[in-house]
Write a structure and sequence with these properties.
Two copies of one chain form a homodimer. Chain A is an alpha/beta fold. Chain A is built from eleven helices and nine strands.
Chain lengths: 282, 282
Amino acid sequence: MRWDQVTVVGVGLIGGSVGMAARARRVAGRVVGVGRDHRTLARAVELGAIDAATTDLADGVKDADLVVVCTPVDRIAETVLAAAARCRPGTIFTDAGSTKGNVVEGVGGKLPAGVHFVPAHPIAGSEKAGVEHATADLFDGRVTVVTEMYGGVAPDARARVEGFWRALGSRVVYMMSPGDHDRALAVTSHLPHAVAAALADIVPPDWLTVAGPGFRDATRIAAGDPGLWAAIFLANRVPVLSAVNAFRDKLAEFYQLLDAGDGAGLVAWLAEAKRGRDALGR
Amino acid sequence: MRWDQVTVVGVGLIGGSVGMAARARRVAGRVVGVGRDHRTLARAVELGAIDAATTDLADGVKDADLVVVCTPVDRIAETVLAAAARCRPGTIFTDAGSTKGNVVEGVGGKLPAGVHFVPAHPIAGSEKAGVEHATADLFDGRVTVVTEMYGGVAPDARARVEGFWRALGSRVVYMMSPGDHDRALAVTSHLPHAVAAALADIVPPDWLTVAGPGFRDATRIAAGDPGLWAAIFLANRVPVLSAVNAFRDKLAEFYQLLDAGDGAGLVAWLAEAKRGRDALGR
């Protein structure tokens, strides 16, 4: 057993899946879930996501070896700091936030001595929110990005956290800069969400009959939780605005080629995009 | 057996799948494939997509009861007219084009007496082109739109063609106006393709490591064949340009809300899109 007690704070889709994966893969002797809603926590125990539950953060983290903060991105830093004040020296923290700059800014330089935080982002998820949709294999074959903290992360804490995310089935990619992470995710995750939402929103309901599998794929992520996503956009505001601008410029090229009836230009434009997409695989 | 001989003109992903489905479901006594490339046709026979093949259009359609034209959209009308001049009286034509206005314009009023054309669009496909990717169940559970011709379609011809597409597994939706079809598909299919291509194209290769399942879904269609798609865009130019404009306006709302840091506004904007997407199902 690699960790005696893992505490998951925020037992939704991601936190619930962390708990299920840690239990199924025997990564933790015991998984404790901390949340705000008694009913959700009871359901998480029922579903096998956690062994025990509490609504008291201090109580939930006091015996933890590893604390995984899975709250919405706008509450991660404050949760880490509140929990860090109530845990044993030597406790290691990680998180699962889709943005890293705001978390690192919020936590950096404010941790008690002997408590370590290693920022992480498992790039996995679903348009379905809540522990009801959690699965033990959510991280299987996915990438988890681990970033640096301002002031550095203790190498052994980082190694242990990377081992944790690997043990849950993911491949760990180390990106030194939280800013690099956020700029990359603005383009690969946050922008596509805004684009899918805009697409889904301009289709009149009576045209949905003729929406085929391509439209379903292209807009699936638009079913994600509005509150969680608004928090992500706000936490990564400037990189997302830049990504929207780059995307607009690219789409304007398409508009001009089509407006001009330039067939050869359209083929070249589409072929370049296809090369990019083909590099990614199915 | 509903048809003695069905001839498929253009034996790629769609034509090959029409042949496979018609054979597997015993809709046709014999499926003849017409194409331009001997090797592709031989492969189509090998794969069981067609019973026999020819590169001679007249030869392929002379004994057909039903001709299904599955060429790229810019060649459908000319192919229908060329074949109609060489077939028996009473032969029925349909097509599988993603655009209908250009086909109806091209064919309308030019058919020999006794030959019927019923425009159709099976909304099924894949980002993979070619008969190698054809499957007998491509149309299963999908929608096929059947539209009117200028001057009308003989009711019994329409009934038989609708029966054909149903027999292949699809649900038939009748839209009187080819223009309505094209405006709806501009938004539900053509615009999403351009958007997916623009997304795929602005991601630098070294960021693809952090592209998760959401990005894959949102950009999958961008791997489609550039030539086929350029032809579709050009055939549906004005409705696609309008769809791009509507989409740009919707994305501009997002940009303004995020730029202003308007959290409540972002949640409302995302919630409206989520309602649209939820109405569609997975």
